[in-house]
Design brief:
By secondary structure, the chain is mainly alpha-helical. The protein has a single domain, classed as Four Helix Bundle (Hemerythrin (Met), subunit A).
Length: 119
Amino acid sequence: MSNFSFLQATWTELFETAREAEQNVNSAPRTSCFYARRSLERAVKWLYANDSYLKQPYADNLAALIHEPTFRENLEPCLFPKILTIQKIGNLAVHSDKPISSSDSLHTLKELFHVLYWL
């Protein structure tokens, strides 16, 4: 049973990437952080596709999407730092040779849970 099972019926693809992050949290922390970031990006793009209040930013990358003022205004205040954590550690996992620990991946996964639960 996944902690992200609440997504399964409505957002199957999002559930699958979040579950990958969860399943790899201890055995492959770098992979876990990659999937956490991928889940975040999918969720953010879903919001842009389904919320007419959100204005498309200058670019279609995660950084531009999450820093767009209408996106930030639409969030609970406690969520933006969580989103930044997922993005930052996910980017390190993909683009850096810096070691990613299981505590990094667990922290990222917890933040992802809060963001996706809000969704």
